[in-house]
Amino acid sequence: MPITLNKKLPAVDILKNENIFVMDDIRARGQDIRPIKVLILNLMPTKEATETQLLRYLSNTPLQIKLDFIYTASHQSKNTKAEYLETFYKTFEEIKGDYFDGLIITGAPVETLPFEKVDYWQELCQIFDWAKHHVYSTLHLCWGAQAGLYYRYRVEKLLMDYKLSGIYEQDVVEHFSPLMRGFDDSFLSPHSRHTQVTEEQVRSKTNLQILAKGDEVGLSILASRDLREIYSFGHLEYDRDTLKREYQRDLKAHKGPKRPVNYFPQGQADQQPKLRWSLAASTFFTNWLNYAVYQETPYCLEDLEERDSLYGYL
Q1: Binding site listing
Q2: What residue numbers does the annotated binding site for substrate cover?
Q3: What's the pTM value of the predicted model, to 2 decimals?
Q4: 24 occurs within a structural domain
Q5: Residue 235 among the catalytic residues
Q6: pLDDT in tens, 72-131
């Protein structure tokens, strides 16, 4: 089944060229089916690229998915035109009365700032709070994961001595979690960050399960036992050349970046990187949609608050 999108969204043509079936909203309304409703809070500066990356993996499911994008109104984007946001995105104010099966909160290039110094922090806190009652499962990515942990549990992020950038191996440590079904004992994932959270803090401040971790990356994937909260510190959604573009960007900005680890063939930056994490990414996002979202959410999403009240989630 397809993803339902605004047919003018640039990602639509890219996905169709990759033989991914995308259905426009007009045709979707003619089908007698309740689609899975997923909201994406896109905090990345290159919004079009992030849209395509996420949609590519969310499409790998037999479910019909209705997607909406939101942006933070309290932040003025320097890389995305206001007309683009007004056409393809909504604000929190526009969707706050609605309910969603799933929410994805992306990373953001603000990790070296204290959370409270981020100009949209208060708005993000509103979204975190709103999601408790209006979203069944929230998937937090990279900085979005660190922000969610800080907001809910006061888990602090720590600045590392160097930027973690490259393709790293992670081990699955909780094989019985539905999110890890289909994974090998270890898998590769891109990471691109200056900060980390420690296992000691997570164990002392939360009841989250550690699903995957690695010697170099530390914690990789965390989740609550009911899969209502999921935190991934890597970037499984990244394209083949995303780390390459980040590396070239930092070179032009004279930041003196190190080449991403285990990424360029023979360590040569002029070589085409190999895509070695796509299967893990596809498995992860499919598992999230199937086990954390589709099989758990009520048919009438408005029943979320009543269900949460009965199970003591509120």
Answers
A1: 163, 192, 249
A2: 163, 192, 249
A3: 0.88
A4: no
A5: yes
A6: 999 887 778 888 888 999 999 999 999 999 999 999 999 999 999 999 999 999 999 999
